[in-house]
């Protein structure tokens, strides 16, 4: 009898410990997931309770424990503009009147809009060859790139279907690029010009 009681008590304690552990396992994630964001950039937060069905929960995003958005049924929330750097989410389960909160996520926000940098493997295209151009944005990730070309005689046009960081060009001209990420898109300052000549 004593062993059965101890075993039952042990199971009860284990169940309580597991339940307490579940209270703390909400997870807040950010999209795009970057080391640095910029003032005015749009960021999406996703709050996962990791317990029960999604429709059992209402969600709330907190900024620096001061600004609280009302509970609602959407687990994702887009914030624009971004200007505070410490976030947490909480969930409230309707059926059991149960609330739990996530980890705190710290976000680095820069007030300076980034500028894209264009570099060229060579500034002269050999006969029948090409030159590789690279566009980059320092200190952060998640960028797609837009490319532009003009000449001394023609207006600037975008190069279609190019979102890559590196492109190969076979035409001379004056090239530049910028970076974009997020939805709606957040654009960097446009890069320096790079003049490419035919040999």
UniProtKB/TrEMBL annotation:
Record keywords, A-Z: Signal
Keyword Signal: yes
Tree of life domain: Eukaryota
Signal peptide: 1-29
InterPro entries: Ig-like_dom (IPR007110), Ig-like_dom_sf (IPR036179), Ig-like_fold (IPR013783)
Limits of the Ig-like domain: 114-177
Protein's name according to its UniProt entry: Ig-like domain-containing protein
Organism classification: Eukaryota, Metazoa, Chordata, Craniata, Vertebrata
């Amino acid at each position: 009898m004593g062993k059965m009681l101890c075993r039952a008590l042990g199971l009860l304690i284990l169940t309580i410990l597991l339940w307490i552990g579940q209270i703390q396992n909400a997870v807040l994630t950010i999209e795009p997931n970057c080391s640095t964001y910029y003032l005015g950039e749009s960021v999406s937060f996703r709050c996962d309770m990791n317990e029960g069905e999604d429709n059992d929960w209402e969600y709330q995003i907190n900024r620096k424990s001061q600004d609280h958005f009302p509970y609602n049924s959407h687990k994702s929330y887009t914030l624009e503009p971004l200007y505070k750097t410490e976030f947490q989410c909480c969930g409230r389960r309707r059926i059991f009147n149960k609330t739990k909160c996530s980890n705190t996520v710290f976000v680095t926000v820069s007030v300076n809009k980034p500028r894209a940098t264009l570099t060229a493997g060579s500034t002269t295209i050999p006969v029948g060859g090409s030159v590789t151009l690279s566009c980059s944005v320092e200190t952060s990730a998640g960028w797609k790139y837009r490319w532009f070309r003009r000449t001394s005689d023609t207006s600037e046009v975008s190069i279609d279907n190019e979102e890559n960081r590196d492109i190969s060009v076979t035409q001379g001209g004056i090239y530049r690029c910028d970076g974009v990420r997020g939805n709606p898109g957040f654009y960097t300052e446009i890069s320096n010009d790079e003049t490419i000549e035919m040999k």
